[in-house]
Design brief:
single chain, 140 residues, alpha+beta, Alpha-Beta Plaits, 2 domains, 4 strands, 39% helix
Length: 140
């Protein structure tokens, strides 16, 4: 694959272009239309890779839970030990006397990472959580 830039043109309605230019401006002075379009294409390709349950991906799972409720801390630890090959790192933060923040870095097949995240987020005591995903793909 060549990293040589190739030019192409895109036609779109003027109102869509105006909204797109506003997005480009919000992303900062180092961004231009071409860079933002490349970002959008990368995002679409990464999303497509996530649709393949066998493709290797990485992600972070962020959760807030009440550690007093239903032995959630022990259950989270047990599940993390069960998936030690996919869970590559964790960070635990005490938010207050009852609530904890857990950030878990995962790596594995898309299907495995989603299943682990669903299992963790579905535990009693987990108040909120979100899986943020990306890929190890070579999109530059």
């Amino acid at each position: 694959m060549s990293n040589e830039l190739v030019r192409f043109s895109v036609a779109m309605p003027e109102d869509l272009l105006i909204a797109f230019d506003e997005l480009v401006a919000r992303r900062g002075i180092a961004r231009n239309r071409s860079e933002v379009i490349r970002d959008l294409v990368r995002d679409a390709l990464i999303e497509e890779e996530w649709n393949n349950p066998y493709h290797e991906v990485v992600g972070t799972l962020t959760m807030v839970y009440n550690h007093h409720e239903g032995e959630v801390g022990q259950k989270l630890d047990d599940l993390q030990h069960q998936y030690y090959q996919q869970i590559i790192s964790t960070m635990h933060v005490h938010l207050d006397a009852h609530n904890c923040l857990e950030v878990i870095a995962l790596r594995g097949s898309s299907g495995d990472v989603r299943a682990i995240a669903d299992a963790l987020l579905g535990m009693k005591g987990v108040k909120h959580g979100q899986l943020s995903t990306t890929t190890t793909g070579q999109w530059v």
